[in-house]
Amino acid sequence: MLFYIIRTDSGEPSISPIVQGDKLPSRAEMLTPGLPLAFAQSLIEILKSQQVKKGKQEILKFLLRKHSGLASMDWRWRSTQPEAKNPIVHTQEVEVDVEEFAFASRVQSRQLSEADFQRLANEMGLNLKEVILLCHESVLQGQAEWIPAVQKEGQGWRCMRCGETEIKEWPSIYGLAGTCPSCAALGALSSLQTLYRSLGPHPDCKEGGMPFAKLPENQGLGDSVELQPVRFSPHWTLSLAQEQASQGVLEFVSTETGKNLLLWAACGAGKTEVCFPAAAWALERGQKVLFAAPRQDVVLDVAPRLERDFPELSVSVLTGVSTERFSPAPLVLATTHQVLRFYQAFDLIFMDEVDAFPYHGNAALAWGLQQSLKPGGKIVYLTATPSPENRAKVQNKGMQLVRLPARHHRKALPVPEWIKYSTNQEVASQWIKALAESGPVLIFVPKISWVNMYVEKLHDLFPGWAIEGSYSSDPGRREKIERLRKDEYRVFISTSILERGVTIPNAQVMVLAADHELFDERALVQMAGRVGRTQENPEGRALFLAKHKTPAIEKAIHWIQEQNRLALEQGLIDPF
User: Fold this and answer.
1) Fewer CB within 10 Å, N side or C side of the chain?
2) Fold of 240-404
3) What distance in Å separates the CA atoms of residue 32 and residue 11, rounded to the nearest whole number?
């Protein structure tokens, strides 16, 4: 995307991405061809700092003298004449153009890369030029800004979408350029590209930028919508343990003290629903709320529960496979990669599975989460297996803590069993057969290559059984997991993609090669936590098959035993 230096008879030179249109001065000229935003901005700053005369020939000579590599381009000054038809719709009935209002609602508090413009245009039924014109109109009104996607910072660089500073440098005709490697999954960004960053709601939008109620079918975003109070209709009753934790979260959210809270819950304790009352409190006060999770499986598992308990509320669900990216909604559910698209958007963030891959240890995703939070906003971190860093923050009073050590059915967490076992032996068929008598068996393996291998072996050992497997890059992953939830498989082999956020009624768990270096204590606790999660099936078995009882295995067993001890002391579970 290129920007043009605009020169009028009087005044300072400016830049614009629009070649023609009535948003430009009527008596002005622009220098063509265009330039990358960062380069155009630096050129104007040099012109100002060195007090170069503002005449068009002087500017052109200065440009070629300072950047001889551009001399081969056909540099010209062209008149900026307005087009015969301006793509923005003007009406007498309303002060705000229909398209401007729809655009503002969709992009509020977001940052868009050049790759996002075409998708936004498709969703709005516009063309690319119209979207860029709407973006620039917002910039002119002070509601947004154009920024280089990757900016120079001292002697280095910084990606303005994810904060990455380890930037890959390369030579360009405009000088040394940089490309960000960290957020390439959302589309590659370089210093020669531009981000559009919304700075706040449209002046005619409600605080928060969009109506809370769902729009009636076929009603346009520019139409008048009567704002409705939030209707929170939970389809569950909190247990004593959940009620105590829920009150702790609500107290944190509703008071002015504290910015960060850790909700440390037992696996399957219902920590997500525990946060719904606090979310309802914030939504009723016009705040914008985000539920974030590292993996799309967790997002897709939580989405129907949010939509069920907030039946009249627009909920935007954003994953890498979302069909729509720019739905305006006060409640957003997104993977942590998609959160990078927001800027100071949320008053309250619930960050689920904070210790899970790919969020844990990823500085770019953590930076993006903080960047998406409004000044003065709050974050609730949810986990069953807190990292040493977060436990240290709690100990040092840098983070508040709420514990939820018991599941809603008041039964103790099943304690994993270590079984000395070598993977060189036969496929542990006797254990699989014993577990399968009680329910579907989830078998976790440390390597993708093991998944299909064990599926084939088990088909030979148990002909007639419904056996399947999946892994992160499996194209059929989503469909298979949906069938797993519907109890259509007797055995399912998986990598760690199913260790979190998925509830399979009456599941039994086996971890093969539980002593593998990939399985730390947090992963093992999560995998064992797939067992005994429902009221109907509160018990089950989790087997750690390994040649050695590693420190990770010992810690995982200890953590679960400690949760049971704490819950029993507080009267939150029945004696076992």
Assistant:
1) C
2) Rossmann fold (3.40.50)
3) 19
Handedness of CA 403, 404, 410, 416 (dihedral sign): negative
Token code pair at residue 116: 């996002």
- Lowest-confidence region among 35-44, 53-62, 232-241: 53-62
Helix, strand, coil shares, percent, the chain, to 5:
35, 20, 45
Q: Specify whether the CB–CB gap between 292 and 334 falls below 8 A.
A: yes
Please give the sequence-ordered ranges of beta strands (E in DSSP) within 464-506, or none if there are none: 467-470, 491-494
The closest alpha carbon to 438, from 528, 527, 511, 540, belongs to 540
Assign residue 389 a region (left: φ > 0; alpha: ψ between -120 and 50; beta: otherwise): alpha
Rounded to the nearest integer, the mean pLDDT of the chain is: 87
8 Å CB contact between 385 and 525: yes
Cα distances (Å, whole numbers) of residue 428 to 151, 418, 465, 469, 552: 55, 14, 16, 17, 22
List all residues 6 or more positions away from 155 whose beta carbon is below 8 Å from its beta carbon: none
Overall fold of domain 417-569: Rossmann fold (3.40.50)
Asked if 416 and 528 touch (Cβ cutoff 8 Å), the reply is yes
| Distances 479 to 304, 325, 468, 470, 522 between C-alpha atoms, Å | 16, 22, 11, 10, 27
Contact 197, 343 (CB under 8 A): yes
pTM assigned to the model: 0.84
- By DSSP bridging, strand 156-159 and strand 14-16 are unpaired
Taking the C-alpha atoms of residue 194 and residue 272, their distance in angstroms, rounded to an integer, is 37
Q: How many residues are there in the chain?
A: 576
- Every domain of the chain and the residues it spans: 3-79, 98-198, 240-404, 417-569
Residue 82's pLDDT band (cuts 50, 70, 90): low
- 252's CB contacts (< 8 A; 6+ apart) are 258, 261, 278, 378, 380, 400, 402
Q: Which amino acid is at 20?
A: Q
- Output the CA torsion 354→119→482→413 (10° steps): 10
Please list, residue by residue across 162-184, b when 16 or more beta carbons sit within 10 angstroms of its beta carbon and e when fewer do: bbbeebeeeeeebeebbbbebbe
The overall longest dimension of the chain from CA atoms, in Å, is 88
What amino acid is encoded at 533 in this protein?
Answer: R
Q: Which residues contact 477 (CB under 8 A, 6 or more apart)?
A: 470, 471, 497
Using pLDDT thresholds of 50, 70 and 90, give the confidence band for residue 376.
very high
Question: Residue 152 in contact with residue 41, Cβ under 8 Å?
Answer: no
Strands 315-318 and 331-335: parallel
487: phi > 0 → left, psi -120 to 50 → alpha, else beta; which?
Answer: left
Measured distance CA(402)–CA(423) in Å, rounded = 40
The token duo for 138 is 């917002």
Task: Give CA–CA dist 228/220, Å, rounded.
Answer: 17
Q: What is the pLDDT of residues 443-455, one digit of tens each?
A: 999 999 999 999 9
Identify whether the C-beta of residue 340 lies closer than 8 Å to the C-beta of residue 261.
Answer: no
Reported as a pLDDT band with limits 50, 70 and 90, residue 223 is very low
The CA distance from 150 to 395, in Å, is 37
